[in-house]
Amino acid sequence: MPAPAEFHAGFAAGLRGGELPPGLAACPAEAAEIARRFAVYRNNVAVSLVAALARRFPVIRRLVGEAFFDQMARIFIAQHPPHSPVLLEWGAAMPEFLSGFPPLARHPYLADVARIEVARGAAFHAADAPPLAPAALAGADPAGLRLGLHPALRILPLDFAAVDVWARNQPGAAPRPIDIARPQIALILRDRRLDVPVRAISAADRLMLDRLRAGRTLLASAEAAAATDPAHDAAALLLQLARDGALVAPADGVLS
């Protein structure tokens, strides 16, 4: 029998499509039956991993079709096998994989859609933090007020209109035209209902959120956004974030 580390490495290689792990067959007479059983096990593992990717990337699967996705997923699995039993942590390489996958070269926006789906998974499983109570904001001086953003909040710059693509491919969404070449910025977070909505935000919204996250006061953050877009509505952005529970105490716990 090979050493345990060698056997485990051979077993993992066999699951990825390699030869039967050395030492698995006790004698030549059993080799054919063991090879058959191992092939069944290998296929079951592959089917389970394809299903895990389908759950992680439902919009990608809908866009390319189930049959195409399942075959593509097997190629992805061979190139990017999971290295942890926690499959929730697996799949982050999908956007890069799609960018370099020749059959999808004419659909570069798919990588951005995959980035949204990866970010949604990360947001759903992010750490929690208690949202600020309305009383903490009422009557506060914006010039001195500092706000934190929930750990689940993600800001994702995209080269294409992937937020619109993602939204159009949600259950019950109505078909509508999309200018696919238009870049977007996605705001992704886990809200109070444990949903993970995806919204397109403006460059001024992003600037204001970046300033808040960096510890700048509310007034300074809003003024920076208004300097790039005089029509920017800081109050509307704050109201939406407050409704979603995305405003929390700053990292040092000091609001002002």
TrEMBL record:
Task: Cite the Putative DNA-binding domain residue spans from the record.
Answer: 9-98
UniProt xrefs under InterPro entries: DUF2063 (IPR018640), DUF2063_N_sf (IPR044922)
Is Electron transport one of the keywords? no
Gene Ontology molecular function, alphabetical: DNA binding
UniProt key word DNA-binding:
yes
Q: Name one Pfam family in it.
A: DUF2063
Q: What keywords would UniProt list here?
A: DNA-binding
Q: What is this protein called?
A: DNA-binding domain-containing protein
Kindly list the organism's lineage.
Bacteria, Pseudomonadati, Pseudomonadota, Alphaproteobacteria, Rhodobacterales
